[in-house]
Amino acid sequence: MVRRPGFSEVSPEAGTLEEDAFDDLLDDDPDGALALLADMSRATDPRLRALARQLAARVMVDVARRGATSRRGVGRIVTAPMRDDAGDVDVDASLEAIVDARAGGAAPNIERLHTRRWARPDTALCLLVDRSGSMTGRPLATGAVTAAAVALRSPADFSVVSFARDAVVVKAQDLSRTVEVVVDAVLALRGYGTTNLAGALSAAGAQLARSSATRRIAVLLSDCRSTEPGDVVHAASFLDELVIVAPAGDDEAAVELAAATDAVMTTVTGPSDAANALARVLS
To answer: Which of 28, 185, 265, 279 has the fewest other C-beta atoms within 10 Å?
Structure first.
């Protein structure tokens, strides 16, 4: 493991991790601290590795939670059976019950009444993490924080897929996993190989097809430079929605793909910006 700035303070002796020193580094240099923690989570020293992964699962979720993680969606008015907790009576939909009640001189049967209320559509997310390049330091930490932000936004309906030449499901759409377990799984990814972007988008479509959500969105975390055969734009056309988060300063191919697919795109400067980058493309 490359010795990053702050390593000696955070781990002054073999197999140790000083959380106070890490907290100081996180305050001074959030991206540097998160990159260091990502690298320490795969250290050769088993004790340091275990301590780092335990801390990373907590810290990266906290960083993601401080970003914009609220559920979003365009609201619409729906008519539904009356509940005690929401909505105004829909007179038209409830007219028969009201007329019958007045004829009998009794109160309307609540089970026959309907209300009109605002409803927000459920959203399913599939995060695609590009592991074809460097999966150390900042890129690895950015992937982990983004995965945490996705899990916090749509905890009941999300998936994470990593890809290089082949796509690997880290967390399936219909499989229950805690956000901490998902973060740990992303931190275990190794970067290598070519980039099969068309295959990754097809894998996202397969995961999202398992969802019955009103809105289904693929989130592509990548520089979008495809090096394997395949029609990327054609693969994207089968997705309901595609949003792209590309590394700042390396987004030329992502800009081209976004234009070709009508995808919403933003750039991410580092792991501390990951949750806000996700919020920008989903809002």
So the answer is: 28
